[in-house]
Amino acid sequence: MSGTFVGMPSFPDAARKAVHDTTLRGNLRHATHTIRDKRAQAVAELPDWQELREAGKRIKDHTLRHLDRHLEQLEASVTAAGGSVHWAADAAEANRIVTGLVKATGEREVVKVKSMATQEIGLNEALAAEGIHAYETDLAELIVQLGEDRPSHILVPAIHRNRAEIRDIFRERMGSWGRPAPQDLSDEPADLAEAARLHLREKFLRAKVGISGANFMVAETGTLVVFESEGNGRMCLTLPETLISVVGIEKTIPTWRDLEVFLQTLPRSSTAERMNPYTSMWTGTADGDGPRAFHLVLLDNGRTDALADDIGRQALRCIRCSACLNVCPVYERAGGHAYGSVYPGPIGAILTPQLRGTASEIDASLPYASSLCGACYEVCPVAIDIPEVLVHLREKVAEQGGHPWEKAAMKAASWVMDHPAAMAAGERLAARTRALHPGRPPGAGAWTDSRDLPELPAEPFRDWWKKNRT
Q1: What are 310-326's pLDDT values in tens digits?
Q2: What are the percentages of helix, strand and coil residues in the chain, rounded to 5?
Q3: Order of strands, sheet of 109-112, starting from the edge strand that comes earlier in the sequence
Q4: Were 228 and a residue from 94, 144, 233, 420 both cysteine, which residue would form a disulfide, CB within 3.0 to 4.6 Å?
Q5: 267-297 b/e with 16+ CB inside 10 Å = b?
Q6: pLDDT in tens, 238-258
Q7: What is the model's pLDDT at position 1?
């Protein structure tokens, strides 16, 4: 399987195949239910959770409204602390910048902290094209990389794999990337983690260049923050001589004090922990401590376009906790690969079409990859109204095209609703011919196979009202 999402089919086609994979559905059901139950317990411990949620929303909204100012302050702060800032308008420019920085060091391999931004731009593939090997060090990302797979979850990229599958991947593939796994490796979590630890240790000690993303960037100090649970991030951020961080511009927050809110909400929403095991923060460079060179690549790649949409911009509040994925009935059954993007689930259904546009079949189908049940909005720690954005994006998709008969039907319905007399006549005709109506309208089997059409009343409401109103 390819490691990229290029050429993916539309969501309905991909999901149709996924829901018939019983192993996949079993893996997803077990994992998402476990995470969601633990998250609910962790959140319930805070009596001011709703206040924290509202605070996070307001901080993000304020930042997005004044993003230009905060980004300029961030650039000045990072530069003053000894770092270098680079601006990338799109994925191609970001890849050119990072590839150039790595080549300038003379190195041919890098170690990576888990980063969705670098997956979004296809950085690993761009580096490989220049003969540079990028090694993922997050355990789940390592599983995905060794298995020549694609990530399927924001927090747990290998959520679609069970322990036996992971053991087989380690046995078969780990040796071609470095230290091999023991041939008698079991599928016990502790044994799998130990095999990964030994495999990665030599890479940590050898690599001269590290690449990361960031969960937050504090504009007033130029500080970057990474949350992680395994310690691999700390190794990548401190041991290499050169550190390159690729971060979406929306990850900016104005002040150090603002970070306090997200230090409480992100761990509980993502890993259901009161505090993240490893919260790494760095500000520029320091003599004798950490990397000697630090480069920050600020990534746009469609974010400015999303920012211009009054409704859609709330997707940029996202702090990548994945809580929405774990409660979504569609994600639980279809899995992350069906979304054709590094951002799966409800947040991916509203973020990806804004970053990539809706010209392709997969992107145009994503706003429809939802039942609009609202569970995602209820758990979002920054109160993104995902159902509202989904409906908004569906409207935009419909406006730009759609099936010819659908457009004709909408145009006809619009005319009828603008002409009350015609609408009243149509209602009366429908009521009087009700016995002739088919139980299943032709061409609507996908809808009526699992739904019953409501029976038409004996007379239109307009006629009933005239007879019965007082």
Answers
A1: 999 999 999 999 999 99
A2: 55, 10, 35
A3: 84-88, 293-299, 242-248, 209-212, 109-112, 133-136
A4: 233
A5: bbbbbbeeebeebbebbbbeeeebbebbbbb
A6: 999 999 999 999 999 999 999
A7: 41
> Taking the C-alpha atoms of 208, 213, 215 and 219 in order, what is their torsion angle to the nearest 10 degrees?
90
Q: In what order do the strands lie in the sheet with 223-228?
A: 252-253, 216-218, 223-228, 278-283
Exposed/middle/buried for residue 398 (C-beta within 10 Å: 0-12, 13-18, 19+): middle
266-278 tens-digit pLDDT: 999 999 999 989 9
The secondary structure of 237-301 as a DSSP string is HHSSSEEEEEEEGGGEES-HHHHHHHHHHHHHHHT--SS-SEEEEEES-BTTBS-SEEEEEEE-T
Instruction: Supply the pLDDT for residue 430.
Output: 77
Please report where in the chains the tokens 């150090």 appear, as a residue. 256
Q: Decide if 154 contacts 320 (C-beta within 8 A).
A: yes
Distance, in Å, from the CA atom of 265 to the CA atom of 48, rounded to the nearest integer, reads 11
pLDDT tens per residue, range 95-125 = 999 999 999 999 999 999 999 999 999 999 9
For 108, list phi and psi in degrees, rounded to 5: -125, 10
Angle between helices 256-270 and 49-65 (to 10 degrees): 120
Dist CA 418 CA 274 (whole Å): 56
Strand, coil or helix: 85: strand
* Mean pLDDT of all residues in 437-446: 67
Q: Are 200 and 137 in contact (CB under 8 A)?
A: yes
Q: Which two tokens stand for residue 6?
A: 């290029």
| pLDDT(454) > 90 | no
**Distance of alpha carbon 149 from alpha carbon 447, whole angstroms:** 34
Q: 404-417 and 420-432 helices cross at what angle (nearest 10)?
A: 110
Which contiguous run of DSSP H or E holds residue 145? helix 139-146
The pLDDT tens digits for 14-69 are 998 888 999 888 989 999 999 999 999 999 999 999 999 999 999 999 999 999 99
Token output for 445: 């089997």
pTM for the whole thing?
0.87
Total Cβ atoms within 10 A of residue 76: 14
406 pLDDT exceeds 80? no
